[in-house]
Amino acid sequence: MPILKAAIIGGGHIADQNHIPALKSLPERVELIAVCSRDILKARALADKHAIPLAFDNAAEMFESENKPDMIINCTANNLHYPFTMQALENNCHVLCEKPPAMNAAQALEMADLAKERGKVLAYNFQLRHTPEYSLLKRFLENGRLGEVYHIKANFLRRRGIPSWGNFTNKSIQGGGALMDLGVHVLDLALGLLDYSEPDRLIANTYDFIGKAGGKGLMGSWDPEKFEVEDACFAHLSFPNNASITLSASFALNTKMQKNVNLEVFGTKAGAVLNPFSVFSEVDGELLDMEFPHLEEADIQLKNTIAFLNACDGKSSNICDATQGAILQKIVEAIYKSAEK
Amino acid sequence: MPILKAAIIGGGHIADQNHIPALKSLPERVELIAVCSRDILKARALADKHAIPLAFDNAAEMFESENKPDMIINCTANNLHYPFTMQALENNCHVLCEKPPAMNAAQALEMADLAKERGKVLAYNFQLRHTPEYSLLKRFLENGRLGEVYHIKANFLRRRGIPSWGNFTNKSIQGGGALMDLGVHVLDLALGLLDYSEPDRLIANTYDFIGKAGGKGLMGSWDPEKFEVEDACFAHLSFPNNASITLSASFALNTKMQKNVNLEVFGTKAGAVLNPFSVFSEVDGELLDMEFPHLEEADIQLKNTIAFLNACDGKSSNICDATQGAILQKIVEAIYKSAEK
Amino acid sequence: MPILKAAIIGGGHIADQNHIPALKSLPERVELIAVCSRDILKARALADKHAIPLAFDNAAEMFESENKPDMIINCTANNLHYPFTMQALENNCHVLCEKPPAMNAAQALEMADLAKERGKVLAYNFQLRHTPEYSLLKRFLENGRLGEVYHIKANFLRRRGIPSWGNFTNKSIQGGGALMDLGVHVLDLALGLLDYSEPDRLIANTYDFIGKAGGKGLMGSWDPEKFEVEDACFAHLSFPNNASITLSASFALNTKMQKNVNLEVFGTKAGAVLNPFSVFSEVDGELLDMEFPHLEEADIQLKNTIAFLNACDGKSSNICDATQGAILQKIVEAIYKSAEK
Amino acid sequence: MPILKAAIIGGGHIADQNHIPALKSLPERVELIAVCSRDILKARALADKHAIPLAFDNAAEMFESENKPDMIINCTANNLHYPFTMQALENNCHVLCEKPPAMNAAQALEMADLAKERGKVLAYNFQLRHTPEYSLLKRFLENGRLGEVYHIKANFLRRRGIPSWGNFTNKSIQGGGALMDLGVHVLDLALGLLDYSEPDRLIANTYDFIGKAGGKGLMGSWDPEKFEVEDACFAHLSFPNNASITLSASFALNTKMQKNVNLEVFGTKAGAVLNPFSVFSEVDGELLDMEFPHLEEADIQLKNTIAFLNACDGKSSNICDATQGAILQKIVEAIYKSAEK
Amino acid sequence: MPILKAAIIGGGHIADQNHIPALKSLPERVELIAVCSRDILKARALADKHAIPLAFDNAAEMFESENKPDMIINCTANNLHYPFTMQALENNCHVLCEKPPAMNAAQALEMADLAKERGKVLAYNFQLRHTPEYSLLKRFLENGRLGEVYHIKANFLRRRGIPSWGNFTNKSIQGGGALMDLGVHVLDLALGLLDYSEPDRLIANTYDFIGKAGGKGLMGSWDPEKFEVEDACFAHLSFPNNASITLSASFALNTKMQKNVNLEVFGTKAGAVLNPFSVFSEVDGELLDMEFPHLEEADIQLKNTIAFLNACDGKSSNICDATQGAILQKIVEAIYKSAEK
Amino acid sequence: MPILKAAIIGGGHIADQNHIPALKSLPERVELIAVCSRDILKARALADKHAIPLAFDNAAEMFESENKPDMIINCTANNLHYPFTMQALENNCHVLCEKPPAMNAAQALEMADLAKERGKVLAYNFQLRHTPEYSLLKRFLENGRLGEVYHIKANFLRRRGIPSWGNFTNKSIQGGGALMDLGVHVLDLALGLLDYSEPDRLIANTYDFIGKAGGKGLMGSWDPEKFEVEDACFAHLSFPNNASITLSASFALNTKMQKNVNLEVFGTKAGAVLNPFSVFSEVDGELLDMEFPHLEEADIQLKNTIAFLNACDGKSSNICDATQGAILQKIVEAIYKSAEK
């Protein structure tokens, strides 16, 4: 297999801490050749820090340069996922794009279509798929230990976790709040247990009481005046096969735990909780609780990067691909629409 | 105040263990004069056990007797709530009827209309309203400590709790399963926090996988062949003021706890969990968890009986009255309809 | 099936509290007709208390009486297990004899031979076989979930539990101490997992330091001067198929727990602990701990009495029969012999 | 006292991490002059890393060199303990040899004889003797607080701890499995409480089911095809004074804890558990549990190295000397022989 | 020994529940012949309930009757301890008087003087002296295990425990509040560890904030208007040998525990906490925590009654005698005086 | 605001680890220009380590140098607090002096008078005032949530914490023991809740049993021969408004916890415990326990340094100023005097 040439677009924290270290640890598969950021100083600093040869402040220039990348990691703000991903695909690059896929369903669909047309891999960085707990949950599902899954409660709840950095409360840049930033993670996990099918019915409510009122911040202090997104979102999704998902996401909610990221999965043969992974079932005529005393920690970004590279090499792998991303974005849009009613 | 003459219709366990002891402990307010049951031997035995003078196997006869009752406790099967309550109202009796109100919304509405017409009190026996935890929750709400409540998760979940006695799995007698028998309790509690307003949107799913497949029973063994109702129900209700409720009820579900009856309440100023009652809020700039080390146990049936008697005496009191019962039954019907789609 | 006529020999606590209530609760299968005790007043009092028609102070007289018993419950002291059981068998009675089977291996063998010759059921009252934990352990073993069991640690340990009543420290009456009274229970359970095969090698040590020195008593105070038996016994048994058992029993031992009755079972596929019942294994490539949140309590004496009656009716059932009792007594004797070296 | 010149034979992990740091921290007592390893590059690298002047790939050469060592640390594989220790003693060096002493009893005896003949110290590196818990246990024993110790349960159990590195599953190099590698540690501790007397009776069983079947590895994955040693060993030892030891060791066993290294010690006055150190006894007529809230952590390798150096200086010290090592190896051999029956 | 004839003065709860059952269980030592209460109906009812022959409403009459008592149990209100005890002593009766001894120091001294003069036993019913924890604490002290005790923290604290029955908030009847009713118990225990010596210095503060403000009552609701005593008392006592006691008592205090009755004892060799009894010391050079896994429950009233009877029989016994009672009352008075400053 | 020039007097651990890092992190407010220590080598080394330009072994010289400091951090031994602080004030420097203020009340008063006379800030380094728990406690007090505080238990207890370094057991250098070194911290906190008023009555006892007897040391081993101070101090303080404090401090005490630094505060509306911060009160008619799930850790030295600098800038700030320090030292002296009686 040839070594792919990779470039980073977007010079923020997630590039520095997650994507670049993952790529750098795979020198036999990928070579990091460039960083591109609106701010050339930032691009240069990041490139220098990680010994990456090139720095750009203009993506077009990068794509036209001699040492053109084969793949792009799109780490830009949500509202730039669409333009830079489209530009990369048009330049025949594979793209690993940060989540959420896009600002709306139409963009995500267009991105999926172009990826298909160009025969390139487009994937979204839902790295929670690679936790040992979710991997084991999937194995249980695939081995038939859960029977058929018919209801899932998917939660990504923070008590006071509105980030004070970045643009997390700015609707025109982020496209949304708790659902767009947090809820999509557990929605992706839940859909992954239902063959990523599309719901035929859904209902949702969103709120912004705490965000707009202000309060104690556990991820820095936010400005209630500039809070434009939902701080909490609750939705119920029903699927053609009658399975259902209850989705709850919050930046701020008056609840006990500071952070609660979890799935509760109910199957015909057994139920499961993701964290800590445990299974509730019957055996030999008695109720059974299963616990797993030794699940190894995993570098979930590294595992997702490898899954993406495997896809680029034409292998099947566990990524959120362009098609799934479009379905997820369509659901997100439907949730927001339902909540407006 | 005159002492009311009371009669029991339906000679089962709930009459014997709950209603009769409560009434007997209030001799200054009520006199138990008769028991009526289809089976005269059962009626007689119950009457003898509790030193009640009269026993009937025919309600009409009872209403026509000289020593006519002023109030009726309707402890019959769900499908008999409507006919006996109607008959009692027509005979100008107050009625305390077991939950759920009726088999469908039309019946409950009719019952409410007749009660109004006759100027009699009709109430449903939702006694969980009188737990010290719910009473304190209401005080917190009324004193403004929660702010405005905008989302409630209401759960009445059993892991393997399909009763093997009675008719709990028979649809034509019960009208439904986990929702009709268990879910209505927490739905009543949740609605009580939202001024018993009616949802303008809802969606629901119901299931019967475990009930129809069979398994370990913790409330006796049930016959999967005769399981005709839902073993689990999940619904999302949205209200005109944008508040929402997530309702979950089960007779059987692959979950950790054997029994989980709880509300999680999210308000603009504070959130609360019902059991054990605790509140999550902020004070003096810090996150605050409130716990209550000494809540006295209450005889909730006695409290509900007293509330009903107070209503009969024309005092305002915390009962689920005929109007609320009709709203609740309407929601239940809507949930079942949504689940059929 | 005809109703068996039963008589009790030995009028002590275990007859009064365990055997008679169990028999009395099975009127459709057994009729208690007589109590026999050396002390006629005691026999009479016990008979009166439980409404049993006849009382004897002479077993021979009882066997010769008109209303002769079909079965005997032998509740006498250890040194009388042999003579009364032999007498009962000779009189063509089935016998349920208290544990241990006898004072030595020769007696137990003779008892087994006579039972066989007469075609009568002789069983020993090892009622711990019927705990829900052991029943589930057996089901796991039979369903292959443990694989092949190759090592068992069997413990019946008390920190300071030398009974101050009865004859527990008198060797000529009891035949031994902690092993004879307590260890035999868990030895029976362990052998039950190994097809009750006989060990081909064993080694043991017994001690009486604390018994002879005296100390705090948690089951009354004992007299160190009259302490003639072992207060602790440790043995290792090796079986022809290379399985092994480590057996530990104590009346008194300087250990943390007041009482510790347990098996640890090690199989090729899984291991198990009896109390609380839990299983340690692997599933889907991960280590698995299994717990059982709802095991119902059982009336283990009643279950053993029923098992005995089933055997009398010619059905196969889970009892410690005469053959097993002889094997167990042979092992006990071999342990004491090894400890003398 | 003169400073001893020390050389390391065997350039593996235990030399690098344990022995060299301990020796290096004692410059006033010992000077590390050489490393000897079959692989000269490895020897050189280790010497350079720790600033040790000389590196050899031939022990004979080292002993003949001008700057000849006074003492040897033998960190080689089990099957090389004998030849290199013999060679070192013949060259008049003191030897601190890794455990187990040798491949069999004859070797260990020969080593002890030669050490005696040459007047040199030969000790085995059983460093668990120096944990604060065992030191305190010994003080309790010596101060008479336990009375006479008559039974010990000694466990070194791993659930899935077959090392994937080194030669731990190779019988011709290791001489054995769980007993040889792990069990010897707790056997040494237990013997140390019984004046290192020799058992006059013993019985044992060994198993290799899990090792040969494969499974989840917590210390890397092992190859079941190449698993030649026992994965579990259970033995009972009886001593001339009637004391007894139950020894359990495993590389792999279906048990709850990942790792369980412990002694339970039963004495006439008190019992003790090693980890966490606690004592069970009586005081002023009541049962007493003793706990020790502050035991300082110890560098157990450093303490054993100092003990060895003290012995070289002719002082009495707490080491496993050549005589004890020979006794221990004799027991190990007897256990394996018993298990073959 | 002759059987003593006993009479009860004061027909309340403590007579009915504590003293009479204790006396009745000792028929070989004491015969209950009379009950005396201001209310003859109450006296009669209590006498009948317990099969006591005589009932009086006039103590003088009782003392003049033919069947005159030898001993009196004085169960009257605090302000009647003095007159009835004096009258009983004048009639040559032994007296077991409820605590506190009297309303003030002068009364208690006079009572002690008269008892001495008449040669009769006067004791106060401080039954907490007989808990197994305090008994063991005393044994530890006497056996020298604590060394010299130099500081004691004595607490009897209730969070919201103002009794709504009796006269607990009435100063003219009770003489005081939390100190008089609760604090005296732990003061007696603490003094018992210091040879009941008298403090040469003390300082105290008392409060009545919560009692006068009202609040949640856990022992019924009290009337803040009628709250005349202290709800909390804190004092420091210093003794001639430089030992010291910190005493804290409360009916109502904003503290975590509902009830906290405890001593913390600091000695030169060891410290102890009373509940649960534990000792903190050193052994063999390490810090030691001692716990006692099996302290039997005791009937502390029965034990105190026996101790009183032993004293009447001229045996030494662990009672709070007249002299100690006078010292205690003197300290209580000094505390109240100090608090007034 | 001008940048203040600061100098350190006393080159020990507390200067190196606490004060210099705090000052260095505030370059916009303060410039560290000199270190002064009796030992010029120590002064030089510390100055070099932290890049401080000047080093002196003579304070007079420093004050006369050209680059004269504006403020002094006095980190000397207790007996030097007075002379160096006086010298600094005379040289018109602000002074942040380590605790305790001085050796006796007279010194502290003189220091306060001179500070006032020169118009300079003198503060003592009681940094525990800035823990998030105490800050929140103060906010609760100020917001009226506790009502009026009337009793405080203030503890700084170590089980075996006599420092083996420094001069902690030397009376002529330290002025005292557990009270002087530890107790003053919690006394300062307690006084801070009572408007730093002066007690009008107090009583105390001090002890040195363990210090003089020796024992296990958890902060190194101390020499009992050289132990000249109290190892424990217990005092009761009563204030003009009737509030009271119970103060307990120990270097060594036979108690369970190794270290126990805490306040229990009792107010008319609520009580509080400092660590972990929790509040006990009533709400809506029920008992309430308040917990605070997220208190951020604070750099308490930095916060106290900033508070001192703010005071130098004329702003009000939370420091223990010269007046408060004099009150505290007066109380300490009174405690020692009381204990001598």
TrEMBL record, chains A, B, C, D, E, F:
It comes from the Bacteria. Pfam families: GFO_IDH_MocA, GFO_IDH_MocA_C3. Signal peptide: none annotated. GO terms for molecular function: nucleotide binding. Residues 136-271 form the GFO/IDH/MocA-like oxidoreductase domain. InterPro entries: Gfo/Idh/MocA-like_OxRdtase_N (IPR000683), Gfo/Idh/MocA_Oxidoreductase (IPR052515), GFO_IDH_MocA-like_dom (IPR055170), NAD(P)-bd_dom_sf (IPR036291). Residues 5-126 form the Gfo/Idh/MocA-like oxidoreductase N-terminal domain. PANTHER family: D-GLUCOSIDE 3-DEHYDROGENASE, UDP-N-ACETYL-2-AMINO-2-DEOXY-D-GLUCURONATE OXIDASE. This is Gfo/Idh/MocA family oxidoreductase. It comes from Dyadobacter chenwenxiniae. The lineage of its organism: Bacteria, Pseudomonadati, Bacteroidota, Cytophagia, Cytophagales.
